[in-house]
């Protein structure tokens, strides 16, 4: 007879997501996940298959949390200004309870990838990044003076800039980051 889960998957995944976001994938051990999630290794493996499975679920959770700012960009009628606001909104979104900016879980994870990284993970990160790029592209379509080629080039520039902001946000102060954003736009 199967044992009944004594935890809510969404709650333990949110805890895991915050742990990965703060420490990165490689640094986060199974022992750290057990402690943070409040469940044992058997339960982790039973529910998520592996540490990698926990990370994949954590990225889904992160995506849901990020909707607070991606939805705002989705309905924006401000073209490039809407994208610029997204960059500022991202800084606020990525702060922890002590106002430390944690960067972006996806960017932090992508920075750890190598040739041997799980193809499923690479695919999930690529899809996530492309979805954000498409939000940028949709807003750029409001800029009637840009050609399709220019819109695509700018969308690429903004997604690479977003990666730069996410990485820089873990090191530089907010004033420096605001200057960075100002110079992007």
Task: Report on the architecture of this protein.
This protein is mostly helical and 185 residues long. The protein contains 9 helices and no strands. The protein is elongated. The mean pLDDT is 94. It has a single domain (9-184), classed as Tetracycline Repressor, domain 2 (Orthogonal Bundle).
Overview features:
185 residues, mainly alpha, Tetracycline Repressor, domain 2, elongated
CATH topology description: Tetracycline Repressor, domain 2
Overall 3D form: elongated
Helix amount: over 70%
Ends apart, CA distance between termini: 60 Å
Order of helices and strands: HHHHHHHHH
The total beta strand count reads 0
Biggest sheet record:
none
Rounded Rg: 18 Å
Structure class? mainly alpha
Set down the secondary structure blueprint.
Blueprint: H1 9-23, H2 30-37, H3 41-48, H4 51-74, H5 79-93, H6 105-110, H7 119-140, H8 148-168, H9 174-184
Helix pairs in contact: 1-2, 1-4, 4-5, 4-7, 5-7, 5-8, 5-9, 7-8, 8-9
In short:
By secondary structure, the protein is mostly helical.
